[in-house]
Amino acid sequence: MQSAIKRVLNSKKMLNGIFRRKHSLLLQPIFLEELKTKLTEAGEKLVVIDFFATWCGPCKMIAPKLDELSQELTDVIFLKVDVDELEGVAEEYDVNSMPTFVFIKNGNVLDKFSGANIEKVKLTVQKHK
């Protein structure tokens, strides 16, 4: 899986569709180089990637709860990837349904699950933080 992550991060196709949290609840797009930098700079910090689709009902349902959680857990980095914009990235992480959450630390995928279950997100964050 580690080599898959490196291939994804080196992909020139990843130019949009990834979002990061800015100081408000609005999400701002990030680009390939910024994603690489964020994953590298995260170091010991946990990174949670939310693979979502704009048309996905459960994704829309859990989004405000994720926003709240990301405000509470300032020591965890939350990123969002639009699977329709970045199909190759979704394939590399073997994302078949949305939302899918991938938990990364020190560049390694620690956990992954699908479903709009905020309690499971919280428990998985606590497990790997």
UniProtKB/TrEMBL annotation:
Matching Gene3D superfamilies: Glutaredoxin
Top-level taxon of origin: Eukaryota
Ranges in coiled-coil conformation: none
Positions of the Thioredoxin domain: 1-129
Keyword Ion transport: no
Keywords in alphabetical order: Disulfide bond, Electron transport, Redox-active center, Transport
GO molecular function, one term: protein-disulfide reductase activity
PROSITE patterns listed in its UniProt record: THIOREDOXIN_1, THIOREDOXIN_2
Pfam family, one: Thioredoxin
Keyword Transport: yes
Protein name stated in the entry: Thioredoxin domain-containing protein
